[in-house]
Amino acid sequence: MTITAGIDVGSTYTKAVIINDGREILGQRMRPTGFKLEEASRGTFDGALDDAGLSADDVEYLIATGSGRHQVAFKDVHVTDLTASARGAAFLFPGTRTVLDVGGQTMKASRLDETAKVKSFRLNDKCAAGTGAFLEKTARYMGFTTKEIGPLMATSKESVPISGVCAVFAESEVINHLSLGTPPSDIMQGAIESLVGRSVQLIKRVKAQPEFTLIGGILRFDTMADAVREQLKAEVNVPEPEMVQFVAALGAAILGQIRLRKLRQQPVVPTGGAR
Known about the structure:
By secondary structure, the protein is of the alpha/beta class. It folds into 2 domains: 4-85 and 244-265, Nucleotidyltransferase, domain 5; 94-237, Nucleotidyltransferase, domain 5 (2-Layer Sandwich). The protein is built from 8 helices and 10 strands. It has helices spanning 37-52, 81-92, 132-141, 149-154, 167-179, 184-205, 222-232, 247-265, and strands at 4-9, 13-19, 25-32, 61-65, 77-78, 98-102, 107-112, 118-124, 212-215, 236-237. The strands form 2 sheets. The chain has a 5-stranded mixed sheet with strand order 3-2-1-4-5. Strands 8-7-6-9-10 form a 5-stranded mixed sheet, with helices on both faces. Helix 2 (81-92) crosses helix 8, helix 3 (132-141) packs antiparallel against helix 6 and helix 6 crosses helix 7. It is globular, with a radius of gyration of 20 Å.
């Protein structure tokens, strides 16, 4: 049995997935990234090994991805998170042609070909108003935790517009709505619809094609996927809640299987002269 691993060192969380050559998930783990990226990657990997009941020696190939991929000293190679996410999304949903990844600090849209290779992509990493961090900051400002965002939005009767083009202006709108007595649930609904509007613009810029697959931590909230469906007028794929944040790590582990198979197929070149 061939075992490979993928580690996704994101700006907010670090995720690790370990799979076998049947592409079955043997172990997975997630923890906050923090400022010590090497420590986060090692700790997350060790946790996934514990989950799988394996040791580091059992893993034959490891690929790192994410913004902190260069800090994973024990990797074999690294790939971009766009590449890894494409592979993971296409594994979970083979018909995927467009991927939207809404993370804590960035939002990315990419268009794939039939082999799960990225043909076009766009990033929105210039301002927090276009990322999950804005939703989390809005919730904290109103006295709610991240875990309470979903239940809070479920009680919304109507959304209020949050049109600020950057986090600073958007936050001012939130403060103004609170001063007018607007229910926090309606403010959160407005914030997520603002985020969805930006995501749909990004999708259109890559000349998106169905099927659409949505990944990233914000997709833990059903409201996000529902709003994207409504604006795109199309069905979207969303991984199960326990997998939605692990797609890039899973894709990296799958790429490890592919890379290892290719290495084993290469002919051995003899060294030294003839005897």
